[in-house]
Automatic annotation (TrEMBL):
Region (Disordered): 814-842
Domain Cyclic nucleotide-binding: 708-822
Organism encoding this protein: Lutimaribacter marinistellae
Biased composition (Basic and acidic residues): 814-825
Protein name, as recorded: Cation:proton antiporter
SUPFAM superfamilies in alphabetical order: cAMP-binding domain-like
Keyword Ion transport set for record: yes
Length: 842
């Protein structure tokens, strides 16, 4: 084939890709539908020009189009890893992990249900063997969410809903391809009716093997990329090699799922890459992969669509009936997931509730695309698959894909309009008015500053300023006088705006490099949680999200358990260091938000809303300070190291700005500027490294903060440090419940707790203890103890506490004072004989 003709065809396909996006926007149709239609037209046109006698001028181009080496291996080994890898590194993984239960269940269960539903429906309606029917079911069980997600974003649907759909689609592609490989093996071996249990039992092996392979490959790649920290192009090149190597290793060496390996590699790079690469290099890497995935996605759609006329050449009337069976079975399976499983998961509180209109839109938006066609092509190419099975698989998969693209895709936006999802709610209407008012105020200030720098005609400036001021007054009055917005909605709007500005502040700090790339992803996720919390739950939702930001997560508690029980300290040290840096960055960001409340929100919603937002912001700041103080007590030197690191990073950023200014002013040349920036990069590499936290040697320093232990010698302090256990408690957690048997004493290292008994309550803070009364009185507790702030506790068992009590006069004095507050005789309490069970204990 002439290389010039092939180059012309490929260049023309890229021209089609470029023209398809604006065409889709103009026709208000999904981009994938336009690509598929253009691909079909190109394929039909090429076949027409070869068959007609009208002209021979286009025959070389038509022959090149139809002769393109389009094979299933090209789709699976070249395009598919690119699409999956970009999706994993492009997603907000921290926010996706919040919904990992519904995503995982929907992805895996949806694939299995769709495969079984379509497979058994075809088995009953056709003469195909069961394994071939299940193979078809696995092929059509993947979904392409790009159309419905893009429309959801354009109509401001809940972000959480879009994330669940994207996560489900990513994983169900992997699960479906794993099932496809399983059933394809049975078809090629000639097993007509495999044991379904045996077939599905191999499914987890494929997934686990692929996940481990992808994780190992990504960890090695990240290690190598960290060695090339000054060479962004080298890091990007390694990232391009990673998904393909992971895919081939899993498929050809391990015998596991290559698709799962690619997904695992992408997720691992997403989690570890930002902390091991410079921020600018990570941004470049994401941009490169966005472009690669855009090209790969478009090419796979067009090239697959070129095959559709060929796959439908031998269609029969009976095949149309089978296509109808596949359509009904697939829609029924999707309906079970959306209208039975999803509401059940919401009722069990493992999934967010999804309103019925959105579920209908998801059902109708379950388009199939290039992955389905690529898998069908793999079947038709295999010489070990029976001819009739190849014909039916190609026709049914192609027909079903055409139905979803042409029927569902072209009517999806109309269905969304019929459901009323394209209309803004009153709250969103008010939010849009607020955005316009705030934007116009900012524009007015910027225009005023700009016009002062230019010699413009004063009359023209006054005339335009008057017109702009009139528009601004109308917008502000519209935002202030919205009668359909309640006061609580104004608070919600203010909180959404505040969280949005927090997100912008994080991005600004990242650009200045005063916040590390490791923390930027987490801080942006925090801002997204606050926005979604405010949108869904107003003030209470915002506060709940704010508490979750400083709370101790399950992973932290697991790391504590590993440290205390197995003496495995690395996870706890890493998470504690992350928490330290996160809280310091949070404090830095929160201090920039007060000016926004006074400068923007107060103008729109008035003093009362602004004052309430200041109060909520003060509570958040106090919670962050409390949590940070708890860490300072335990690791006093580490906070100082992090603050020194912050100062060094800020100084380097200012130094870089000065060099850039001198270069722009012509004070230094390009060579001098390059040399200065290279030296700056070397110093910055050292400043980027976070100091190591040693958690093993800080317990003694923490114990010395307690006045109870002031008179203990060094040996006793070391023994006590080994005996004390650490426990981290979130606000609202119950530490001790009523009627329990006292077996431990708790010392408050940081935070505060509330004790409640018989309708009375009192607070205890840092340096105090509780739980000792129940031990000394040998009676059930009559109090409930609950944390009211992020709290760090040191716990001592009963035997060691009694020995410590005999040795420490400060502890005996504290026990006496606690007993007097409860009306108990301290001398009787400290004697060897137990008190009566009728006395109040704590």
């Amino acid at each position: 084939m002439d290389i010039v003709v092939v180059t012309t065809v490929i260049a023309s396909l890229f021209f089609v890709i470029g023209a398809a996006e604006p065409l889709a926007d103009r026709l208000r149709l999904p981009y994938s539908v336009i690509l598929a239609v253009l691909g079909i037209l190109i394929g039909v046109g090429a076949a027409f020009f070869l068959a007609t006698d009208l002209t021979d001028a286009l025959n070389p181009v038509a022959s090149a189009i139809l002769g393109l080496p389009i094979r299933s291996n090209v789709f699976i080994y070249v395009f598919l890893p690119t699409l999956l890898f970009q999706a994993t590194i492009g997603m907000n993984l921290r926010r996706m992990l919040d919904d990992w239960v519904p995503i995982l269940v929907l992805a895996v269960v949806a694939v299995v249900v769709a495969t079984l539903s379509v497979g058994y429906a075809l088995y009953w309606a056709s003469a195909l063997p069961l394994v071939a029917c299940l193979l078809i079911g696995s092929i059509v069980s993947t979904t392409d969410p790009s159309a419905v997600v893009s429309i959801f974003r354009s109509i401001s649907a809940p972000r959480r809903l879009a994330r669940i759909i994207e996560g489900e689609s990513l994983l169900n592609d992997a699960a479906a391809i794993a099932l496809f490989g399983l059933f394809m093996g049975y078809v090629m071996l000639g097993v007509p009716d495999p044991e379904l249990g045996d077939a599905l039992s191999r499914f987890p092996v494929l997934i686990v093997g692929g996940a481990i392979t992808g994780w190992v490959a990504a960890r090695v790649a990240v290690w190598i990329m960290a060695l090339f920290n000054r060479f962004a192009m080298a890091q990007i090149s390694i990232s391009v090699a990673l998904p393909y190597l992971a895919f081939v290793l899993a498929e050809q060496t391990v015998g596991a799922s290559g698709v799962i390996a690619v997904v695992a590699a992408g997720l691992t790079l997403n989690l570890t890459g930002p902390g091991r690469m410079p921020p600018q290099a990570w941004a470049y890497l994401r941009e490169v992969w966005d472009l690669l995935a855009h090209w790969a996605g478009a090419l796979i759609f067009i090239l697959a669509a070129l095959l559709i006329p060929r796959l439908l050449e031998e269609v029969r009337l009976s095949d149309i009936g089978l296509i109808g069976v596949v359509v009904l079975a697939a829609i029924a399976a999707r309906s079970v997931i959306l209208f039975v499983l999803l509401p059940l998961m919401a009722r069990l509180r493992v999934s967010p509730p999804v309103e019925r209109p959105y579920r209908v839109a998801i059902l109708w938006g379950g388009l199939r695309g290039a992955v389905t066609l690529a898998l069908a092509l793999a079947v038709t190419e295999s010489f070990r698959v029976p001819v009739e099975v190849k014909r039916v698989v190609g026709i049914l998969a192609t027909g079903f894909t055409l139905f979803t693209l042409i029927v569902q895709g072209t009517t999806l936006r109309r269905v969304i309009g019929w459901l009323g999802l394209d209309r803004l709610s009153p709250l969103d209407e008010a939010l849009s008015r607020q955005v316009v008012a705030v934007a116009l105020q900012t524009v007015r200030e910027d225009v005023s500053r700009t016009t002062e720098n230019y010699e413009l005609t004063r009359e023209i400036v006054r005339s335009e300023a008057k017109r702009f001021a009139e528009r601004l007054d109308v917008s502000v009055k519209s935002a202030e006088d919205s009668e359909d917005i309640l006061d609580r909605d104004r608070i919600t709007l203010g909180l959404i705006a505040l969280a949005g500005h927090e997100r912008d502040t994080v991005l600004a700090r990242v650009r200045e490099r005063t916040v590390s790339a490791r923390m930027s992803e987490r801080l942006l996720s925090d801002a997204d949680r606050l926005i979604e919390g405010a949108r869904s739950g107003g003030r209470s939702g915002y506060q709940r999200a704010a508490r979750g930001i400083v709370a101790y997560g399950r992973g932290f508690r697991l790391a504590v358990a590993l440290h205390n029980r197995l003496r495995v300290s690395l996870p706890l040290a890493r998470m504690t260091a992350d928490r330290f840096e996160h809280l310091l960055s949070q404090r830095l960001i929160l201090r920039d938000l007060g000016a926004f409340i006074d400068g923007r929100i107060r103008r729109i919603h008035g003093r009362r809303v602004a004052d309430l937002l200041h109060e909520l912001l003060a509570r958040r700041t106090e919670a962050v300070e409390t949590a940070l103080e708890g860490l300072r007590l335990q690791y006093p030197g580490y906070a100082e190291e992090l603050e020194r690191r912050f100062i060094r990073r800020t100084a380097l950023r200012l130094e870089e700005r000065e060099y850039d200014t001198m270069r722009e002013d012509g004070l230094i040349g390009a060579e001098v500027h390059t040399a200065l920036m290279e030296g700056l990069s070397r110093r910055r590499a050292g400043a980027e490294d976070r100091p190591r936290l040693d958690i093993a040697l800080r317990r003694d320093e923490l114990i010395r903060e307690f006045p109870f232990f002031a008179n203990l010698d060094a040996g006793a302090l070391r023994r006590l440090g080994r005996a004390l256990k650490t426990r981290y408690v979130n606000p609202g957690d119950v530490i001790l419940s009523r009627d329990g048997v006292g077996k431990r004493v708790f010392f408050i290292a940081s935070g505060a707790v509330e004790l409640e008994s018989a309708g009375q309550s009192w607070l205890l803070g840092r340096g105090e203890m509780f739980g000792q009364m129940a031990i000394l009185m040998r009676s059930p507790r009559r109090v409930e103890v609950r944390a009211i702030a992020p709290t760090t506790l040191l716990i001592l068992d009963e035997d060691r506490f009694r020995r410590l009590l005999r040795r420490s006069e400060p502890i005996r004095q504290a026990v006496r004072e606690s007993a007097k507050k409860r009306g108990i005789d301290p001398d009787a309490l400290l004697s060897d004989s137990p008190l009566s069970d009728t006395e109040t204990s704590g």
